Amino acid sequence: MSFDFLNSEALFSDPYPVFARLRKEAPVHFYEATQEFLVTRYDDCRIVGSNDKVFGPAATEGRPEFRVMGTPNVLTMSGERHQSLRKGIDAIVDQPHVRSYVDELTRPVLQRFLDELKPRGEANLTTDLFEPVSVRCVGDALGFTETPLENLYEWFYAMADGLALGAGAPLPDPQAVWDRLERTNADINKHFGKLYEDCLAKPRPRAITNHIIYGGMPEGQVRSFEELLPTMRVIFLGGFQEPGHAAANAATGLLMDAEQRRAMLDAPDEHALKAFDEGLRWIAPIGVTPRVANADFELNGVTIPAGSTVAIVMSSANRDETRFDDPDRFDMFRKKKPHLTFGFRPHFCSGHFLSRAMGEIIMTEVFRQLPNIRLDPDKNVVASGWRFRGVKELPVKWDA
């Protein structure tokens, strides 16, 4: 059987036809380019993701995640140490806490960007609105209120390019990617170092970072700067990206469908969360989570040897035709079924309540405040990536 269809160019351009063939022909397949087994069916992803005794966190030194974020981090930890760290993170991003601060966090930032955009009548909604609002709000929630937006942007994009390069992205100058990442890490150290010292001098209970420093620790003890740095990089990469790209993906789905666009324009409050959730399924912003097999394991007739890296391809599982009807279609009215975008316990995404709450606000106000918003017929919508995927260019117009 030929697997010429499985290559980096196809994956980064549009991975979904590739995933569909893999689900049909080779649902568990070793991909030479990234040296990992790709697991693409919904049920198989659930088997791997829920079996943390056999499939543990991926902390392999040769993995791109190791070079970009460092270890140990919240994704590579397990056991009591992981539980303690998650206790600190989850304490401020659970549903009751998120509800108490998400409006104050999101609405002023969103409104500032919307007010700047309204007179223009057109924009790339991803880069002009969704991304900056997401990065600024999550940065503020973490406590980086004094760090310029441009710096936060650079952290996210430098790390994202590093991971993309490790996943086979056809980037023209690999060394430039790693040089950029080195500069970025120095800047992260500078700004996070200041915030860390500020929190030690005077705890900031409203900042997520403060809870990560103190939460789950014995009385009088704190986590060290060096211990927290890899986890903070994970949070920067996932947290800055997910609300913005999920909103862009959902908005794209809505604007490409006349009936759903009209429904959203008529009643944004009613449909915003449904649309955002469907966007998370339709194009998962974070589409892959890696695991390492601790023992030989047979799945769909394929033996995964102990020590192998396994890629749980959530973005493929979310379009499994045995799980979802007409899975390639964005449909906010579809019968609700759980998708796998936020991963699996014990590493289920800590920020899922915050992401969804921010997304609901953003989607509501965009379709409320930009009259007759529609795709620009003279420009193309552009999405890219497979481990991290989003609509990067979303050209729209509205009645200014």
TrEMBL record:
Annotated Pfam families: p450
Lineage: superkingdom: Bacteria
Membership in a protein family: Belongs to the cytochrome P450 family.
Record-given protein name: Cytochrome P450
